[in-house]
Amino acid sequence: MSLMPVAEALERLLAGISPLETEHVPLERANGRMLAEPLASTRTQPPFAASAMDGYAIRSTDLGEGRATLQVIGDAPAGHGYSGTVEQGQAVRIFTGAPIPDGTDTILIQENAERSGDQVTVLEAPVKGAHVRPAGLDFAKGDVLLAPPLKLAYRHLALAAAMNHADLPVIRRPKVAILATGDELVRPGTEPGPDQIIASNHAGIAALVEDCGGEPLDLGISPDDSVELASHVRRAISEHADILVTLGGASVGDHDLVQEVLGQEGMDLSFWRIAMRPGKPLMAGRLGNTKVLGLPGNPVSSLVCGLLFLKPLLQAMLGLEPQQSAPAQAVLAADLPANDRRQDYVRATLEEDADGKLIVTPFAKQDSSMLGLLARSGALIVRPPHAPAQQAGTAVPVLVL
Ligand SMILES: Nc1nc2c(c(=O)[nH]1)N[C@H]1C(S)=C(S)[C@@H](COP(=O)(O)OP(=O)(O)OC[C@H]3O[C@@H](n4cnc5c(N)ncnc54)[C@H](O)[C@@H]3O)O[C@H]1N2
Ligand code: MOO
Predict the structure, then answer these.
(1) In what residue span(s) does the MoaB/Mog domain sit (predicted)?
(2) Atom 39 (ligand 1): residue with closest C-alpha?
(3) For residue range 96-117, what is the model confidence (pLDDT) as tens digits?
């Protein structure tokens, strides 16, 4: 049986995938979304020269030798500029954010002033232009300040607001229908029958989809029955899912019906069976406009395949350069035997030694049903096909989880 190399499978999966269409969402719902278009400012900020301090707006030419005393002719709080012109020997009481009155060019902070009635005496002369924010200090109208690829975060949203964009163009979140299969499965929180277990893969894959910027759609659990399975698959299509993820039923057993049913529904198979461990029975195809990714049922296989294949697929649909997380280098703390023909993703703990070096310790057991070990893992050691035996102390590539 020939198995496809991981890199080739990934390349096939991502071929021809382009970013989804643009939609507009209100600023308050744009956190974490991918910006779809360059965003130019609709205004200049600050729109006027503004005071950066509370104090007095003065004319620097009034500051000569010795202490100047000026006449305070008005007030300029933020939002209410002083409308007149300040002449020689005059000053305006001003507050942070207020426009600099005509005729003035400098702010005397109130700590360096002594006020007496409508007179103010300069105790410590400021330099010309002190504490004045010129118009456009932050940005000017027309400046393109945010551009794709960009995942919008709090800093970008504050800037978009300052640019006066109430709605933002973002890439539509890929809708990912997730369908678990298997007579043995029941939902978390329910009581399994004597031969049943709790379906766990769904929860993990849905969270991964959310982390990657997608929108999970729960299609529930289909029993191992062709008719039921087909009706669940049709629901994914009628919901216009961008991706249908099936969980389990991908292998060769008599009850592994997923590929057969998808075929009957018209799926164009791209590949099945990968030279990797865990995750050998991974399958991919296309059903109309919906990409299909068949993840193996074993929980660790499901999640590792999700990380290695579903994540880059979502990234590509969101306009990000799809890249598998770049491996880091870590030092093995235990010997590893020679690898066979499947690329291995070995569950391992990860620590830093006193010198800041990463130390990776593989778990002795690597069964792909053991979610407890995956949850305690800090990394996956990546072992290429036919990697020779490696001894403790050797540097190996790891995917940090
Ligand atoms: N004769 C062979 N048997 C198997 C092969 C093979 O090549 N020849 N491959 C093995 C490998 S590798 C894997 S991985 C599994 C995957 O098989 P399926 O994708 O068909 O998965 P199932 O048989 O449906 O389930 C496997 C295992 O995982 C449990 N499971 C399934 N779905 C869930 C879920 N949503 N949450 C939690 N656990 C789930 C299921 O109960 C089974 O224990 O096949 C091997 N067999
Ligand atoms: O590949 Mo299976 O995923 O080894 O358990």
Answers:
(1) 177-316
(2) 297
(3) 999 999 999 999 999 999 999 9
